[in-house]
Amino acid sequence: MKIYPGNEMIKRPMNAKPMNAKPIISKLMNAKSINVNPINVKPVNRSPVINRKPVIAGVGEILWDMLPGGKKLGGAPANFAYHAGELGCEAYIISSVGKDMLGDEIIATLDLLGVSGRYIGIDDKHPTGTVEVQLGEGGIPSYIIHENVAWDYIELSEACLELAKKVDVICFGSLGQRSETSRNTILEVLGNTGSHCIKIFDINLRQHFYNREIICNSLEHANVFKLNEDELPIVSGLLGFDGNYGEVMRKLMNRFSLELIALTRGERGSVILSGNAISEHPGFKVKVVDTVGAGDAFTAAVAVGLMKKWDIDLINDFANRVGSYVCTQEGGTPKLPAELKEMVENMP
After folding, report:
1. Quick check: 64 and 71 in contact, CB under 8 A?
2. Is the pLDDT assigned to residue 156 strictly greater than 80?
3. pTM of the entire structure?
4. Looking at domain 23-346, which of 1.10.10.10, 3.30.450.40, 3.40.1190.20, 3.10.200.10 is its CATH number?
């Protein structure tokens, strides 16, 4: 099986008014403004537009990324929650840290970042998770993820189940499910979400910590799927799908009754598929420091756009802006500039 470049992807007319992005964003990101023309499509039909502060949660790993320049808070669900909080959501993380100095530092750091640690357990038997991060060409990270750590043993609590009932969006991945204990907790939490909840499976394949069963079960629990271009051929191979990326995305959507799939392509932007509509974005040219957390920030921006009922071109453009900015910063949890936050407030 071979995944071919997607020049066979279905195209659609682009005849609507471009989004009015603030010029300062382009200056900030050293990128020329890119007009992506929205199409008149029905938004993802999950819940009414949320006029209160949305409630989101990331469930899974929380850890320290040990970068060449020092340690930074990490873990995809934690990064997602942080960026969703930066974009105006009430953000929570369901995870576990060790009863040690690194765990204390995570709780303190979350407090400084404005993310609630209320649903993070303290494990006195296992250490706080750490990941050795090496940056290659173009700031692309490689990881050594230590095992048998606190987030492998996330305990299910009544408080977590109560949170699940009120979240508008929940994000989870495959890495947090590498142990049976945390996998069962994650699936129980997902099973207790309301019918209005957007459940995002941001796959984040790492090392050998995934298999077909975990991926399929996760997709059965999700209604939104996010992955990158390196992960797509792995997923399609495990599931026996062939074709170009557009065809594989369509097969995934049909097989698992997904409402939206987002495929990120690094410096070449991203593709979003929802219903019969496809949005392709070329990305923004930026000076990359590292790409750690950029995909998680992209996912958070997609979540915000879905809750605001934006069409997929607008979601795609905004998510690329947020993800590209994170690439210009060190680590996965930089402060987002006011201009990006204002875009959320000012867009209808």
Report:
1. yes
2. yes
3. 0.85
4. 3.40.1190.20
